[in-house]
Write a structure and sequence with these properties.
The protein is of the alpha+beta class. It has six helices and seven strands. It is elongated.
Amino acid sequence: GFFFGAIMPNWVTNKISASPAVITAMLNSDGCIDFNTIAPFPGDDKWNGISIAAEEAAQIVIGAPLSDHPLLASLEASNRSNFDIKKLSEECFEQFVGMLRNHRKCGYLHSMDFARKAWGTKWNACAQSHDVEKGIATFETAWSCPKGVLVELSKRFPDESIAIEFADEDIGCNCGSFILKNGE
């Protein structure tokens, strides 16, 4: 089957304070905050959803480690031991091959794999607003502050300071602030 994200994430509100040039660099041609303008996925995935079976097959082939979480690791190990590539539908098989091509090209199976590792969040910015003149951008991300993409943004503007504040919707956890300059 295909996985579209059945588990609802906690949302993290992110507030960015920086120069107008930095805020502008976060925007796509439609004027929306878009992490792809900062760190685009270097592979190819034009799929309508990610096949769990195709992803499991690709993880087996590349020797991806099992989860750090014992229960998830047990489930993953069981799924991998029972896997039969002949049971993949033609569409899933083609996605599996595409994931292997992506991994060979850029080290990531698909754009969500890339986003989780490179951006620090699984999806792009949402519930966003910005005021370029004031140097302020606010947006939400799934589960965590997108530190990876903000570090990349900071490297593009090595002489600029970028102030970040973030807070999870759960009160009292996964919140903080930091300042980036030249990716540090």
